[in-house]
Amino acid sequence: MQEIVSSVKRNYIADLARQRKRVDGRGLDQYREISVEPGLIENADGSALAKIGNTQVLVGVKLQKGEPYPDTPESGVLIVNAELVPLASPTFEPGPPDENAIELARVVDRGIRESQAIELEKLVITPGEEVWIVFVDIHVLDQDGNLIDTSALAAISALWNTKPPKDEDWKLKKFPISKNPVTVTTAKINGEMMVDPCLDEESVMEARISMATTEDGNICAIQKGGSGTLTLQDIDKAYELAVTKADELRKYVK
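Predicted structure:
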């Protein structure tokens, strides 16, 4: 019975896409309701809760002293982790991070790192010996599709919310963040490209592409998902949507 229902749902969503419609009545270029609440975790140096539709992600930031990477002795360290707890979705399983959690962490990390949102060179205490490590921990609370955009939005909001630690080795007046990368995910269903896929749409999409862009429209990260293919026209459309919708998403970053 479940396979029959899934097949019926797949055909229904695909048929709607053919008509340039969606299961929840949105336009192809329309996000679900968005909200961001910064500063919710008292014992974190920075935090934010982001919601896109019914998807909820909480991100905490912690600053800790440690050793730099050998190949970047004069740079602080950024470490992003993602946790997909079973309470958030029946598809999440307990245990070590699976490939979905690893992908989520890497995509969020890449958007922050490649945009140079954090001035990591300012986080050096003693070159080659001791630096500040920025831990960004992603906790998925509810999964209803588009975890990448929700997590990226929560992460950059949490970083902007980050306050300096009370430590004598901290010499800066504030946390050194200067850019605001935002990620926009577009799914391809029955040949149509649509932003912010909900969970039902993700279950039937042919492919997806997530693009992180900076304020000037430059791409700082790209991740392709799904087994289907994307044409050059699809990618051009995804970039157009990424730049346009990123401006909307940035308004929610506190």
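Summary: The chain has one domain: 26-250.
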